[in-house]
Write a structure and sequence with these properties.
Length: 394
């Protein structure tokens, strides 16, 4: 049967971390399930920070999509064009409509490269790179090695963005690289972030400020990148309404992000464009048979894979309870985690909830830089991802 003719018990929009993890937990429930996503490849994006620092190859982060989507789940290789929640349908770009009894929206976040004037067409050239692009992530390492003097700029846009710690991780790794190669006194490192502080949770902010002090780093707070003059190697920022120009030799760009347009323009979005769900149950506030999780949802937490790992079992339990006429009893507390790599051998593992309360997993001070946490980031978490989360086991 074609997607136009067939109705599914559950339709999942998006085959990223959230979509596949949910599908893996539902696959044995004797339900007809479809995932809609055109992407042929699946990526473990947290590894890209390490790729940009020359620690591993980007191919290590890549798998074929067909190998991670559960075999019992039908994969519709198309993109969603619009939502029709009143008739329980989504329209895909082929023009067909896919019917569902329950809908899970897990479409990720949209990276708005064009929002920075002059960036389009220059990424991967003139010293401009980004760890947020699989295509260009290895340019970060290439340009880092080419930088022998001058200014290296690292940017961070206004929140929300996915993996909010990633823009500063490459900053710390670059500093360590230049120091190890006797270039630290020749290269000025400048982290230009739109926010007023290095991190939101006080315990980890205090620890990171000590890292900055030890490394003799002085971030430029409330500097938002708005334009790049690639030919002259000038980065242009808005700083409290003033236009600030900075010359650079190396420029690591993190562009602003938003909910995907097809969601933001749909009836399931809130005024800010995110899928409008209850922050504890992940059920849509208007359409009870719709749930959402991950980066495209309105959940007011950090957009990380670790957050999704805690969201998935809550959503699945609440969905199954709804299907069986039971109360939605599971609650997501806003847990998020960020392994903040501070050098080629150290990492701070930040874990916290909606209210900024600590939600740490280990019986030691996680604000302390540790080699063990670096090993967890480099080796443990990728294994947990591929063999745990995506298999519905973790």
């Amino acid at each position: 049967m074609t997607s136009k003719q067939k109705k599914y018990d559950i339709v999942i929009v998006g085959s990223g971390t959230a979509g596949v993890s949910v599908a893996a937990r539902l696959k044995s429930k004797n339900l007809s399930i479809a995932i809609i996503d055109p992407s042929e490849k699946h990526f473990y994006q947290p590894l890209w920070t390490l790729v940009g620092a020359g620690i591993c190859e980007k191919t290590e982060s890549e798998r074929m999509q067909k190998l991670v989507i559960p075999k019992s789940v039908e994969w519709i290789k198309d993109r969603v064009y619009s939502f029709f929640p009143d008739s329980n349908e989504v329209e895909i770009s082929s023009g067909n409509r896919v019917q569902y009894s329950y809908l899970i929206v897990a479409a990720g976040i949209q990276i708005n490269w064009k929002a920075i004037k002059g960036l389009e067409g220059n990424l991967g050239k003139n010293g401009i790179c980004s760890n947020y692009s699989y295509q260009y992530v290895d340019k970060t390492w290439e340009f880092l090695q080419q930088t022998k003097s001058g200014r290296a700029i690292f940017t961070q846009p206004p929140m929300p963005i996915k993996c909010a710690g990633a823009p500063q991780k490459i900053y710390y790794l670059a500093e360590d690289y230049f120091r190890k190669n006797n270039l630290r006194d020749k290269v000025e490192l400048d982290f230009c972030l739109a926010g007023p502080r290095i991190f939101g949770v006080e315990k980890y902010r205090n620890a990171l400020e000590k890292v900055l002090e030890r490394k003799s780093l002085n971030p430029s707070y409330e500097h938002n990148l708005i334009e790049v003059d690639a030919h002259n190697r000038i980065a242009i920022f808005d700083h409290k309404g003033k236009r600030i120009e900075k010359e650079y030799e190396f420029l690591h760009v993190v562009p602003p992000m938003s909910s995907p347009d097809f969601i933001a323009e749909s009836p399931i979005a809130n005024s800010a464009g995110w899928v409008d769900v209850d922050k504890y149950s992940m059920q849509h506030l208007e359409y009870s048979n719709i749930f959402s999780l991950g980066d495209c949802s309105s959940l007011p937490t950090s957009r990380t894979g670790a957050a999704i790992r805690k969201q998935v079992p809550v959503l699945v339990k609440n969905l199954l309870n709804l299907m069986n006429g039971k109360e939605l009893s599971a609650k997501y507390d806003g847990y998020a985690s960020c392994p903040l790599v501070t050098s080629y051998s150290t990492c701070i593992l930040a874990e916290f909830d909606y209210d900024g309360n600590l939600a740490e997993s280990f019986p030691f001070d996680q604000a302390k830089e540790r080699y063990s946490m670096y090993l967890l980031k480099r080796h443990g978490l990728p294994q947990l991802y591929w063999h745990g989360m995506l298999k519905g086991r973790a």
